[in-house]
């Protein structure tokens, strides 16, 4: 007899959980992405929990802002936005994307923070033939026929700033970044371009130093090596918590007087608040800054500030632009905007007016050909902010 | 009397569940079928966790290591050598077994929480290697573009969610059957006896370390085979699939299902993984909160089950307060 | 003589990492000591321990405004909040048997998951800013190198904390009970001290220690979405490496981890991602083998 109770309650739990699961799947309707009423289903996948939640929230809010300022419509159709959580990476992103694509049957997918998540979602996209208008991470892909990005390729920021660093730094530059695909690409973009124009790295073996990611919370041992290398400047890329740790520790270290150049994510958005004074004077390269002077940007920043604290980030901007891309593509896709039709229409958009300035999709990589800006962390009223101090190269291929 | 009733009820439930799983792809939508296929792979790893945790008495957080070895071996074979499922399965199981064999010296002499930490370290080290060995693994962004598998020479490639799911189901059912048969042999009995009272078994002349090594390698082979199923279900793998959160969820799923029962472990691990995957889709932003609350609730829903699981780690007949060998084994430091 | 002449230059770049290893190690020690109590005394595998640290860290970020008074206030609030969370955890753990590590892991992992997302919901997904008193904000010169003033002061404070902890465990009645509970739980039960009270007390004390570590360590391992996991992992490594019931072992393990993460990384940067776990696995495996050998002979 004593054996019966646990087994029964175990079975009860199992049944309970199974019921929850089956009712959920029963709820999913098989309606196609567009309906007779002129509405359209769009899926948004972003990290709304976990390590990258800050970026994921910006991506969701950027897309939502475009909808809110356009009567909730894209291409004249009422949008039914289905949001799913990407979590920390591909292991949670793949099932969540599968739900959006195979159960909700969305007509297009947008968002996605991690490059690895994009790579993981690709097989499902190819199977369901739905286009992705990604707004952040972009992995190396063999086939981009259905994949578009409004953000950038990871090696572009470094390539855009290399000439400026070469012209303004007298001496060698130490390159350091996080040890994962994003870090490798960001740093390779810089070191390749820098090497091509005759720049010299200060790293002892001539190769970039990579720090374990995300395990590194203490950068002091690396700073000791930078000091010993005699570098005249440092180029880096970090984002999120690692960016906060890096910048705060840099400012208190023995290399605090060495100029720091970085891909803009080092001081972008919420991390700048956490860094505080430690971030002052850092130079960075990015495709956007909230103080850009054009009509689209003024409207975008004003609409953002009406809803949120602080200024919009490049993450929010890229997602806002993804909505703009879908808006025009769905409008151009005709009376029956199937996923295929939307995908074809995206390829024919041409110039896109955006708060970052006008840009267009590259025909080979399906990512933007766009201008990059040099920014510096300066006082702006009571707070520190990234101020544009110059234009850099227009990059894209 | 009740024992007989339970056994029959259990058999009936198992048969019902199996029948349900076979007809499932014709009842539910593609998403659920895809989710189930992926869950089956992870549930099979759960079985290997249960073999070590509940049967051999080595609680592990490191089965993601042979699981990863199997998955990557299968992906490499699949993209470069053969798209035949049986071949990939054998290679994957071999890779898992090999990795498990290599780590045997680290694991078999330890017990309890020490095993947890050693296996955790092994899992983390393997993930680190996977992220950095870019020429083979594709680095942290993972390996995509793995061709669809054909189960056997001459058969068509698996192109739909239904086909992939049924393939996974057949493999998992076969392997579980093998495990259940093996557990009824002498080796399985010795393993369980070692878990319950290691000293006595050793005194009676059994070489406990040898049996544990065998169990560890067998569990590695199962996890490796599960890795090849993940490749089939997802057509993509990355180090993130084999991280700490996967191993932690699997161990917890196995604890919920009952560490010493293969069927329980299968169901427990499958439920935890499926609920996790499902929550990220339907409750964006709240998945960890709800999952955490579910774990806490489970402990309260299974009060007797929990104590019973505890009883399993000790000889059931022993008085509650008498320190047994098993207890010493759980926390060796306490006795120094 | 040659060695001495070559010494300073060769050692010089590693001075600051070595010093910083002490700061990092002491932080890990204070953070992990609570977990040692949990595990060694109450025999509870508390996977929510990192959450208790994170509570301290977020408190520090919310309360600190750059003044000394706010530091004292943050310490008081952080310690109390984390101690309360620890006591709450003890309450939740009531139905789970002592020593049943797997069920404890299930419950505390659930609490860590849910509690972590509640913290992020309350304080936002961005890492908050931590403003230490202005006098500690800058850096000071140590043997010709610049080093963060806060970390230098932290070394002193954490060392004092470690000594105080040692004295409490060695010299007070509570400490005696704690040691007795490690050596002989049944005897303590016979003394009329209920195991439930010991459990609640130990978890609250562990919370207080983790909370203190979270507040004081916020400028070093700051509050954020991953803080709880980072701290839990480091603490678990310390607990297992240091053995239980021995403060000296814990301290030694924590300092070793601190030096591995700083000096080790400075010396062997290419091996950095493997150092911590490889060292832990090797030490544990060797020790387990030794232990197994001893059992066989007895």
UniProtKB/TrEMBL annotation, chain A:
Coiled coil: none annotated. Residues 39-381 form the Leucine-binding protein domain. InterPro entries: BCAA_transport (IPR051010), Leu-bd (IPR028081), Peripla_BP_I (IPR028082). The keyword Signal applies. It comes from the Bacteria. Belongs to the leucine-binding protein family. This is Amino acid ABC transporter substrate-binding protein. It comes from Micromonospora inaquosa.
UniProtKB/TrEMBL annotation, chain C:
Keywords: Amino-acid transport, Cell membrane, Membrane, Transmembrane, Transmembrane helix, Transport. GO terms for cellular component: plasma membrane. It is found in: Cell membrane. Pfam families: BPD_transp_2 (PF02653). The keyword tRNA-binding does not apply. InterPro entries: ABC_transp_permease, BCAA_transport_permease. It is a multi-pass membrane protein. One of its GO terms (molecular function) is transmembrane transporter activity. The keyword Transport applies. GO terms for biological process: amino acid transport. The chain crosses the membrane at residues 21-48, 68-93, 105-124, 148-169, 201-221, 233-258, 265-286. Belongs to the binding-protein-dependent transport system permease family. LivHM subfamily. This is Branched-chain amino acid ABC transporter permease. It comes from Micromonospora inaquosa.
């Amino acid at each position: 007899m004593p054996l019966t109770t646990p087994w029964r309650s175990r079975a009860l739990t199992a049944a309970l959980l199974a019921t929850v699961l089956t009712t959920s799947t029963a709820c999913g309707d098989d309606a196609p992405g567009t309906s007779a009423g002129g509405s359209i289903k769009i899926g948004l996948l972003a990290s709304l929990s976990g390590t990258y939640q800050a970026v994921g929230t910006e991506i969701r809010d950027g897309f939502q802002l475009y909808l809110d300022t356009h009567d909730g419509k894209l291409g004249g159709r009422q949008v039914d936005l289905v949001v799913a959580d990407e979590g920390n990476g591909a292991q949670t992103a793949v099932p969540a994307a599968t739900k959006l694509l195979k159960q909700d049957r969305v007509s297009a997918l947008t968002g996605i923070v991690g490059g690895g998540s994009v790579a993981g979602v690709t097989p499902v996209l190819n199977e369901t033939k739905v286009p992705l208008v990604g707004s952040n991470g972009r992995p190396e892909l063999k086939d981009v026929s259905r994949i578009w990005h409004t953000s950038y390729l990871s090696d572009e920021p470094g390539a855009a700033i290399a000439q400026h660093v070469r012209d303004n730094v007298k001496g060698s530059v130490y390159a350091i970044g996080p040890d994962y695909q994003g870090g490798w690409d960001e740093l390779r973009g810089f070191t390749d371009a820098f090497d091509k124009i005759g720049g010299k790295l200060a790293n002892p073996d001539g190769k970039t130093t990579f720090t374990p990611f995300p395990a590194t919370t203490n950068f002091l041992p690396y700073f000791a090596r930078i000091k010993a290398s005699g570098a005249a400047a440092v180029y880096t890329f970090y984002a999120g918590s690692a960016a906060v740790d890096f910048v705060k520790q840099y400012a208190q270290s023995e290399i605090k007087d060495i100029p720091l150049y970085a891909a803009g994510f080092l001081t972008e958005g919420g991390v700048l608040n956490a860094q505080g004074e430690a971030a002052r004077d850092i130079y960075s390269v990015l495709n956007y800054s909230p103080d850009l002077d054009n009509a689209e940007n003024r409207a975008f920043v004003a609409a953002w500030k009406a809803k949120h604290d602080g200024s919009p980030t490049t993450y929010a901007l890229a997602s806002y632009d993804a909505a703009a891309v879908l808006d025009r593509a769905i409008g151009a896709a005709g009376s029956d905007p199937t996923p295929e039709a939307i995908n074809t229409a995206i390829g024919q958009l041409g110039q896109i007016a955006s708060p970052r300035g006008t840009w267009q999709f590259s025909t080979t990589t399906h990512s933007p050909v766009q201008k990059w800006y040099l920014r510096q962390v300066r006082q702006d009223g009571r707070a520190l902010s990234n101020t544009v101090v110059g234009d850099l190269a227009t990059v894209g291929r | 009397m009740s024992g007989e009733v339970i056994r029959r009820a259990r058999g009936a439930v198992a048969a019902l569940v199996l029948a349900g799983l076979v007809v499932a792809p014709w009842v539910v939508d593609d998403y659920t079928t895809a989710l189930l296929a992926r869950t089956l792979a992870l549930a099979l790893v759960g079985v290997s966790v249960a073999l070590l945790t509940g049967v051999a008495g080595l609680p592990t957080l490191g089965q993601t290591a042979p699981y990863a070895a199997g998955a990557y071996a299968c992906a490499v074979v699949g993209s470069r050598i053969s798209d035949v499922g049986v071949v990939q399965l054998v290679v994957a199981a071999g890779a898992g077994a090999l990795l498990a064999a290599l780590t045997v010296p680290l694991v078999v002499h330890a017990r309890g929480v020490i095993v947890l930490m050693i296996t955790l370290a092994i899992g983390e080290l393997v993930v680190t290697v996977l992220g950095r060995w870019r020429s083979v693994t594709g680095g942290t962004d993972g390996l995509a573009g793995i061709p669809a598998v054909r189960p056997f020479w001459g058969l068509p490639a698996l192109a739909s969610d239904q086909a992939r799911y049924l393939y996974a189901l057949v493999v998992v059912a076969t392997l579980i059957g093998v495990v259940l048969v093996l557990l009824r042999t002498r080796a399985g009995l010795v393993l369980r006896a070692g878990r319950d009272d290691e000293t006595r078994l050793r005194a009676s002349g059994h070489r406990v370390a040898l049996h544990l090594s065998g169990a560890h390698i067998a569990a590695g082979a199962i996890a490796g085979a599960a890795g090849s199923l993940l490749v089939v279900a997802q057509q993509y793998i990355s180090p993130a699939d084999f991280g700490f959160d996967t191993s932690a969820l699997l161990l917890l799923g196995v604890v919920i299902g009952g560490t010493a029962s293969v069927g329980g472990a299968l169901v427990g691990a499958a439920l935890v993984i499926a609920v996790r995957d499902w929550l990220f889709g339907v409750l964006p932003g709240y998945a960890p909160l709800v999952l955490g609350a579910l774990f806490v609730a489970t402990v309260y829903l299974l009060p007797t089950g929990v104590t019973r699981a505890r009883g399993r780690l000790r000889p059931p007949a022993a008085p509650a307060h008498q320190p047994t060998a098993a207890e010493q084994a759980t926390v060796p430091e306490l006795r120094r | 003589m040659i060695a001495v002449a070559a010494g300073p230059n060769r050692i010089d770049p590693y001075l600051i990492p070595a010093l910083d290893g002490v700061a990092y190690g002491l932080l890990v020690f204070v953070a992990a000591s609570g977990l040692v109590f949990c595990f060694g005394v109450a025999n509870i595998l508390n996977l929510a321990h990192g959450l208790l640290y994170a509570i301290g860290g977020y408190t520090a970020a919310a309360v600190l405004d750059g003044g000394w008074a706010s530091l004292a206030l943050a310490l008081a609030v952080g310690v109390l909040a984390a101690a309360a969370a620890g006591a709450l955890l003890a309450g939740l753990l009531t139905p789970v048997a002592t020593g049943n590590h797997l069920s404890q892991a299930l419950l505390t992992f659930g609490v860590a998951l849910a509690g972590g997302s509640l913290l992020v919901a309350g304080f936002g997904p961005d890492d908050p800013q931590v403003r230490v008193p202005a006098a500690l904000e800058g850096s000071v010169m140590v043997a010709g190198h610049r080093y963060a003033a806060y970390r230098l002061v932290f070394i002193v404070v954490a060392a004092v904390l470690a000594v105080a902890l040692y004295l409490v465990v060695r010299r007070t009645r509570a400490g005696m009970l704690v040691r007795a509970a490690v050596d002989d739980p049944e005897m303590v039960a016979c003394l009329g001290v209920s195991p439930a009270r010991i459990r609640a007390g130990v978890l609250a004390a562990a919370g207080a220690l983790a909370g203190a570590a979270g507040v004081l360590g916020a400028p070093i391992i700051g509050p954020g979405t991953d803080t709880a996991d980072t701290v839990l992992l480091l603490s678990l490594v310390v607990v297992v490496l240091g053995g239980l019931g021995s403060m000296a072992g814990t301290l030694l393990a924590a300092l070793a981890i601190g030096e591995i993460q700083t000096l080790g990384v400075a010396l062997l940067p290419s091996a950095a991602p493997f150092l911590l776990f490889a060292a832990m696995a090797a030490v544990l495996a060797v020790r387990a083998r030794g232990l197994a050998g001893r059992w066989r002979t007895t």
